[in-house]
Amino acid sequence: MRIGAVNYLNSKPLIEALDELLPNDELILDYPSRLADDLESGLLDVALIPSVEFLRNPEYQIVSDSCVATHGPVLSVKLFSRVPMGEIKTLALDEGSRTSAILSRIMLSQRCGVIPQLEPLPLEKNCENTEADAVLLIGDRAIHSPPGDFVDAWDLGEEWLDWTGLPFVFAVWAARKGTDLNGVEEAICKARDLGIQRLKEIATREAPILGLEFETAHDYLEKNLYFSIGSAEKNGLKLYQKLALEMGLIQERVDLVFRNCTHIG
User: Which of 70, 114, 170, 207 could be joined to 212 by an S-S link, Cβ 3.0–4.6 Å?
Assistant: First the structure.
């Protein structure tokens, strides 16, 4: 099997020892947007993809309750603005993002009545490379406060919870309907459970690579993230889907289909 996963710190607990659990399968690490494209094109059999990509494709099923979610501040998905949020006219979107790009547009529209002109922020570029009023950053580079003359910032996990009272799910494991995953679903759940047990080890290993203090990395994994889909997370996904549909940001309603994982309630 060809398995795609995100190479961000927030996903490390989901793939802890996954290559050992699935020694005969290929684990490919990439940015979320690229994983979504590769799953759609058939280059991957199963992938950890932005949740909005699942909501856009009726041929996909969620194959594990393992996920990247938050019950409040997420730390790694932030909207930085050079003007008050209600005055944003242009928005640069992190090219690695799709779920968070839609979330930022929903929040600006619903909270501030703002529908900005959009521009991409390439993965190799940073805030200094755009003159947009606001910049969305995701992943490891969002943890660090970027240089620039910003007057306001939203942690989108925190803003979503404050506004809706619900968790937010950023990424899910998905595959096409009918794909025989040969036990991959169970291995994904086992890897997540093992990763949660090893948060200290993961933080110790990854923090120096990212230029973070151990405490920052560990607190992020332990306090800012949640790695299982339950009823509240499903309701958060449903509300996100409803709002994205109403704004025309996704084109059709798809059923939230879960399969073949005993952890899912």
Answer: 207
Q: Tell me where in the chain the CATH 3.40.190.10 domain(s) lie.
A: 2-70+168-246, 77-164
The third-level CATH classification (topology) of the domain covering 77-164 is D-Maltodextrin-Binding Protein; domain 2 (3.40.190)
Q: Provide the residue-wise pLDDT of the chain in tens; the chain has 265 residues.
A: 999 998 889 999 999 999 999 999 999 999 888 999 999 999 999 999 999 999 999 999 999 999 999 999 999 999 999 999 999 999 999 887 899 999 999 999 999 999 999 999 887 888 888 999 999 998 888 887 777 789 999 999 999 999 999 999 999 999 998 898 888 999 999 999 999 999 999 999 999 999 999 999 999 999 999 999 999 999 999 999 999 999 999 987 787 777 654 443 3
Best CATH choice for the domain 2-70+168-246 from the list 3.40.50.2000, 3.40.190.10, 3.40.50.720, 3.30.70.1050: 3.40.190.10
- Concatenating the DSSP letter of every residue in the chain gives -EEEEE-SGGGGGGSTTHHHHSTTSEEEEE-HHHHHHHHHHTS-SEEEEEHHHHHH-TTEEEEEEEEEEESS--SSEEEEESS-GGG--EEEEETT-SHHHHHHHHHHHHHH----EEEEE-TT--GGG---SEEEEETHHHHSPPSS--SEEEEHHHHHHHHHSS-EEEEEEEEETT---TTHHHHHHHHHHHHHHTHHHHHHHHHHHHT--HHHHHHIIIII-EEE--HHHHHHHHHHHHHHHHTTSS-S-----B-S-TT--
